[in-house]
Specification:
One of its GO terms (cellular component) is extracellular space. This protein has about 350 residues and is of the alpha+beta class. The protein is built from twelve helices and 14 strands. Strand 6 and strand 7 form a beta hairpin. The protein is elongated, with a radius of gyration of 24 Å.
């Protein structure tokens, strides 16, 4: 199957301020020998202002994909100035090997599977990117996702490559993997409402919203419902025990499914879980039913059972003080989920 992609090259916020820079980029592209016979990667590599995006493409292992003739590609390739406008530390983090899959996801978010020239754009047009998230095109002014202006007047539009078309936009586009924390994503999914209530009750929201990287094996509401009757309510009234169990679902680092191997992995509560990979990934006796949900501070794997530390392999709910009622589940919202 052949794909058509476009290269959107984000520049800075103002066409006037960056007119000279834009003209220099266009001139560099125009001076590339027979640009229509050069790939997106070759054109980007020939322009000094694209050195950062080329570094990112290389680090993500996507240089060959954007150089070959196996298809035509849409890649958003921000110039150096657009990367410099990102919050401090974002780029440095993404370029570290442990954030490899997140970096790939950011680049995939700058890619479309169809060719859309400037004349094909329409107000409110939605397009699915290669990371499966959607971008929205608006025309007054022409822009992507509200704030990434398409630089039609600056002339950086419909630039031909052998494997795509290049358009300029004014900002780097950040997908969920770069903009929403583990807590944000869980709070935005109703299937995790019990988990989110437990995280709030245990005071772990900040810990799971920090820099990471962390990997969370996240039980669904159905997994909590399968516990013995009264267990969830009792745990909400026993914060130390609840914290012990929740931290048993978290490991340090970005444990992508492609890197998981059978064996023991230490969790944040100090005990280990057993990973098995025969016929699908399992954590102890829980199945991973959805893998590799990327967050800005780690990875979520959805599991179908609540996993319990060895000492808490309970068939009855934990005992609670008969004179003290269980604490109610919190009702206030955690950090808002990204759309």
């Amino acid at each position: 199957r052949r794909y058509r992609y476009q290269l959107y090259i984000p520049l800075q916020d103002s066409n006037m301020i960056f007119a000279k820079r834009t003209l220099a980029v266009v001139a560099a592209i125009a001076s590339t020998a027979n640009a229509q016979n050069s790939s997106i990667y070759e054109i980007a590599s020939s322009v000094p202002d694209f050195s950062t995006v080329v570094t990112a493409i290389d680090a993500a292992g996507l240089d060959e994909a954007l150089s070959g003739d196996g298809g035509t590609y849409t890649v958003f390739a921000p110039p150096n100035s657009a990367f410099e406008a990102l919050p401090e530390g974002v780029l440095d983090k993404l370029l570290k090997p442990e954030w490899f899959y997140h970096l790939q996801d950011v680049i995939f978010y700058h890619a479309l599977g169809t060719e859309v020239r400037s004349t094909d754009l329409s107000d409110g047009l939605e397009a699915e990117t290669l990371n499966t998230e959607t971008i929205v095109i608006d025309l007054d002014p022409p822009r992507v996702n509200e704030n990434a202006e398409i630089l039609i007047d600056a002339g950086l539009v419909d630039v031909e490559a052998s494997n795509g078309v290049i358009h300029g936009v004014s900002n780097v586009l950040l997908p969920t993997s770069a903009s929403s924390s583990i807590v944000d994503i869980a709070a935005g999914n109703p299937d995790f409402s019990t988990l989110v209530a437990a995280v709030k009750a245990a005071g772990l929201v900040d810990a799971l919203s920090g820099d990471g990287p962390l990997t969370v094996f996240a039980p669904t509401n159905a997994a909590f419902d399968a516990l013995p009757e009264g267990t969830v309510e009792a745990l909400l009234g026993d914060i130390p025990k609840l914290t012990e169990i929740l931290t048993y679902h978290v490991v340090s680092g970005n444990a992508h499914s492609s890197t998981l191997a059978a064996g023991s992995v230490e969790t944040l509560n100090g005990a280990t879980v057993e990973i098995s990979t025969d016929g699908g990934v399992m954590v102890n006796d829980a199945n991973v039913v959805a893998a590799d949900i990327l967050a800005s501070n780690g990875i979520i794997h959805v599991i179908d059972k609540v996993i319990l530390p060895p000492a808490d392999d309970m068939t009855e709910p934990p005992a609670s003080d008969a004179t003290e009622a269980p604490a109610p589940a919190p009702t206030s919202g955690a950090a808002g989920a990204s759309a």
